[in-house]
Design a protein that fits this description.
By secondary structure, the chain is α/β, with parallel strands linked by helices. It is built from 19 helices and twelve strands. A hairpin with a 2-residue loop joins strand 1 and strand 2.
Length: 523
């Protein structure tokens, strides 16, 4: 497996060993020093070697990675001059296979997950809940699990919270104190989340992680580009989403140890947002996730302006480093420069602290893990130019790329199946009608008739009677097992009955798997 060429430094080619790419990395530097171009060049190289990539496009310009560069574009002369300076005789413009994603569904395919899969711990952090409120949220999830109620979107959670408030006394007797004040505080936070557009993130069809790990017909890894320019206005949602995505990858992917090349490389731009206002316990658990996900074959690269934005325990896991220029304008800047210099393997011929402040645009200090796992000596390096376009795609180009996407039509239309909101509303309606019947006919007479709301099990058998061969049993059972695949078309009616029941249960049970994982990591 060929190493990735990064640039020329110290008279030698500086490369990234593919077998060490899952040992994570850091791309740091002040605004305008070339971090995005470095990221773009790395993503291209991973893709070319069959490694899928995930990148967050926080400024809107990374979408150009899907189109080949052009000599007519801005800065083309500088790119070509740099390629010549580095001896890149094979330099030519080229595009990359890309899939556009967007939590809001505007600039790419929607990304959704269910409330159940997100779990109470990440939701509590997203809503800035205190310990008491988080405890109430845990009770809500526990009760929903036990009642087989699917929490798919914000409306489901709001309905569950309203039900919890109305039945606080009964629930408190079984689960512990549930105060209406705490429920009200959670409901207000949910409304605020909804006003920020977070409601579009929760629902179905939920993202299948396998769709992030694909190659095109030529064996090139797809580059998954998340439109994050609008998402950045809600930084807490951005950080929580990426943490959830890491946890999903960890839960879904099998152990592979140290493969010849990563299964996926994940670029976390504006990485400081993950740690802003995060308690130390959460920092410790993020460090744990980063350390453990390596064995799943996932490489995580943090991209940030200031290297001291990354806590030491996490920074200690980042073996591949590209440090662009920093400016010594403030005492904090000077501290960052010294901290960055101290992380590199010493080069006796280079004053690292001085070099960090002198680096030009497109130049960086580079140190990567060698084949034996030791870091290379830091070198002042001219970074290679990307082959794709520097700058955003047009709306027309984006629409074309989206239309030929391998997931076209899979996530674009939201599905709203029966879940907690509908069931609780039906129960409330049934209770009102039953009370009126009792008043009119008497309790004894009313008790003779069948229940108004069909039980989950009865619904399952009824659906099975109508089911065609292509039931959802396979997909639901796979979800319960932690595997995600499409339904097997060869199903009998009997299997469909079981599968229909599993479909109703799959949300709570599969979600509980993920919540247990995240819960264990965050306690």
């Amino acid at each position: 497996m060929a190493d990735i060429f990064l640039g020329l430094g110290g008279g030698e080619n500086q490369t990234l060993n593919m077998g060490r790419a899952n040992r994570h990395g850091l791309i740091a530097g002040a605004t305008g020093t070339g971090k995005t171009v470095t990221l773009q060049g790395l993503a291209e190289s991973f893709s070319a070697q069959g490694v899928p990539v995930f990148v967050a496009d926080v400024k809107g310009d990374l979408s150009g990675i899907s189109m080949q560069g052009s000599s007519d574009f801005k800065h083309a002369d500088k790119l070509q001059a740099r390629a010549k300076e580095l001896g890149m005789d094979d330099y030519a413009y080229s595009d990359n296979p890309a899939i556009f994603w967007d939590l809001y569904g505007e600039q790419g395919h929607p990304i959704r997950t269910t409330i159940t899969e997100m779990g109470p711990l990440l939701l509590a952090r997203l809503m800035d809940l205190n310990d008491t409120q988080e405890g109430v949220l845990n009770i809500v999830f526990r009760f929903a699990d036990e009642q087989g109620l699917l929490l798919l979107n914000l409306d489901d959670l709001q309905s569950m919270l309203a039900y919890t408030a109305e039945n606080a006394k009964e629930l408190s007797a079984k689960y512990g104190n549930v105060s209406k004040a705490s429920v009200g505080a959670i409901q207000r936070q949910l409304l605020q989340l909804d006003s920020q557009g977070a409601g579009q993130f929760f629902g179905e069809p939920a993202l299948e992680i396998d769709d992030f790990i694909q190659c095109d017909e030529n064996g090139r890894g797809y580059i998954n580009v998340l439109a994050a320019d609008k998402l950045m206005r809600s930084p807490k949602l951005y950080a929580t989403f990426l943490l959830w995505l890491l946890a999903e990858l960890f839960e879904t992917l099998p152990e592979v140890g140290d493969p010849e090349k990563p299964k996926l490389v994940f670029f976390f731009d504006e990485a400081h947002l993950l740690f802003d206002d995060a308690p130390k316990a959460l920092e410790d658990k993020i460090e744990q996730v980063v350390r453990l996900i390596r064995s799943k074959g996932v490489g995580v690269f943090f991209v940030t302006q200031n290297p001291i934005d990354i806590p030491e325990k996490v920074a200690g896991q980042l073996g591949n480093r590209v440090q662009h220029a920093l400016r010594a304008f403030t005492p904090r800047d000077k501290k960052a420069i010294k901290a960055a210099a101290d992380t590199f393997r010493i080069n006796p011929d280079l004053d690292v602290e001085e070099a960090i402040t002198e680096l030009r645009v497109g130049e960086a200090l580079v140190s990567t893990l060698m084949e034996d796992g030791a870091p290379s000596v830091v070198q002042r390096t001219l970074i290679k130019p990307p082959r794709s376009r520097l700058g955003p795609v047009s709306k027309k180009e984006r629409a074309i790329i989206r239309s030929i996407s391998p997931v076209e039509g899979k996530y674009d239309e939201e599905i709203d199946r029966e879940s907690a909101e509908e069931i609780l509303l039906q129960k409330a309606t049934d209770a009102t009608e039953t009370a009126e019947e009792v008043a009119e006919k008497g309790e004894k007479e009313v008790s003779k008739r069948s229940r108004k709301t069909t039980s989950m099990w009865s619904k399952a058998m009824k659906r099975a009677g109508r089911a065609a061969a292509g039931s959802a049993a396979g997909a639901a059972a796979a979800a319960v097992l932690g595997k995600k695949s499409r339904a097997n078309p060869a199903r009998t009616a009997a299997t469909s009955a079981v599968g229909s029941i599993v479909t109703d249960l799959a949300g709570p049970i599969a979600g509980r798997f993920v919540r247990n994982l995240i819960g264990g990591l965050m306690r």
